Amino acid sequence: MKKKVSIIGAGIAGMSVGSYLQMNGFETEIHELHNLPGGLCTSWQRNGYNIDGCIHWLVGSAEGQSLYNAWNELIDMKKLQIYDHDIFYQYEDESGKCIRFYNNIDLLEKELLEKAPEDRGVIRDYIHAARRFSAMKPPLGKPRDLFTLKDMGETVFRLGPYLGLLNKWSKVSIADFAGRCRNPLLRKTIENLFVPEMGIVFVMITTAWMHNKTAGYPIGGSLAFSKLIEDRYLALGGRIHYHSRIEEIMTRSDGSRNQACGIKDSQGKEYPADFVVSAADGYTTLFRMLKGRFVDSKTNAFYNNNLLFPSYLQLSLGISRMLESSASSLIFPLTQAVKIDPANTLSEIGIRIHSFDPNLAPEGKTLITALIPSREHKYWVNLRTDEFENYKEEKERIIRELVSGMEKRLGPLADYLEMKDLSTPATVIRYTNNWKGSFEGWIMTPSLGFRQLPLSLRGLDNFWMAGQWVSPGGGLPSALMTGRGVAEIICRKTGRKFKTESFNS
Predict the structure, then answer these.
(1) Angstrom distances, CA of residue 396 to CA of 245, 254, 317, 421, 422
(2) Smallest Cα–Cα separation from 346: which of 420, 306, 304, 399?
(3) Which residues contact 268 (CB under 8 A, 6 or more apart)?
(4) What is d(CA 255, CA 277) in angstroms, rounded to the nearest whole number?
(5) Could you tell me the domains of the chain?
(6) Cα angle: 177, vertex 183, 188; to 5 degrees
(7) Choice between 150 and 467, residue whose per-residue pLDDT is larger
(8) At residue 505, does pLDDT exceed 70?
């Protein structure tokens, strides 16, 4: 009889672990609170526009590296159309001066030296590191539970030449690195790379990926990408229960050990299983589904002391005329500051003009999106719950003021506006249940570095976690690889040789 595995969450991590377990002869079922796969990797329809809510770039999008090979186990990568931007993003100040942060390292160096010659030393540091990292080919990696001496040797062989750089720049935050710049335009440009608390090393590595054209955008949007993995999982024989909110991870004790033995949904229905995997929100998993019973002091301190990525508002506009941009993202000042929440007033905005993907807007029209960070998730949740009409009015006000504030830079918008949408941290929490509405879990700060949380819990057998809550930095590769790793661990536990099935192999 096949061993049964219950998986919580049909995001990329949940579908990843499910697919690999199906490849290895297990019976799996995924329970998802939403009615769609993907979790945060999603899109939604509004008035003929397909709003992309996640993917800015897919690490591993080009052949010749291990991560591409891993994606090709879940998706036929040959059929995936990838778009590579020439410019990562463009930052503009109030006077109209700009810096184009090119993906090509040589063009980036030329641009930065031309715009900020007084910061030659800082620029050389960044460019040198990015060039070195562009030659780095890390191994696919295994969970530390399965790490062997051979794996250690391969890791040292591949990463050894870069360990000095990794160690040096992982200790410097984006904000601190930007503070070394004398040129105010360059300083602001660097400050707006990701979130200021993150280590600058991760931006350097991203530049290397972009330079190598192995972090492109999958045409079709995030939900289309998630559905490809859903198709793979279902074709392998897996099952997904949508609209299934899990309230409890069931356990039993034989007197000396505790074991996960299934899950229980919000209707009280029980689903017995030999193994349980949570690819859901980490806080909900540990402190609600498991009632905090298996949280040790180290994990508790991790949740209390480390910084989360913020939640966000996403502005989406459908414009009945064509707009173009050569940059993946464009940041520029608003003509007037816009109050977003009690702690956040926006004076500049970062947008994406999605003209590079014809699937996201009707022909001759343009989708514009903007992610606006907010750490005021409680404000938005309470406003929606207690004052729904005011919640809707606030959203309308923010849309109206942002549209007005962008027209000087983008030209007339209001007269061409045929779709408008604003999601909030309350929206993120409703559809994903992510703790505090965070969009990528833990920020890889200099103090956190490359540390990972364990995939298992001390004192609880037959249970594992996968996804961004055990892999700081989040993102799709973390979801894929933690899911793959958990499947490999379960195979090892049951005496099976872990095997995979690739497309075009």
Answers:
(1) 31, 57, 12, 9, 8
(2) 399
(3) none
(4) 23
(5) 4-42+54-62+220-307+442-493 (3.50.50.60), 103-212 (no CATH), 311-436 (no CATH)
(6) 60
(7) 467
(8) no
Contacts of 164 (CB under 8 A, 6+ apart): none
Digit-coded pLDDT (tens) for 286-312: 999 999 999 999 999 999 999 999 999
Angle in degrees, CA 169, 172, 173, rounded to 5 = 125
DSSP state of 165: H
Q: The tokens of 95 are what?
A: 């006077």
Q: Are 134 and 164 in contact (CB under 8 A)?
A: no
CA triplet 215, 157, 503: central angle to 5 degrees?
Answer: 45
CA pair distance 106, 375, nearest whole angstrom: 37
Torsion of CA 110, 115, 118, 121, to 10 degrees: -40
Strands (E), 47-125: 49-52, 58-59, 82-83, 87-92, 98-102
End-to-end CA distance of the chain: give it in Å, rounded.
29
Kindly state the helix (H) or strand (E) to which residue 338 belongs, with its residue range.
strand 327-341
pLDDT of residue 220: 96
For helices 163-170 and 200-211, the axis angle rounded to 10 degrees is 130
> pLDDT, tens digit, for every residue of 182-217?
999 999 999 999 999 999 999 999 999 999 999 999
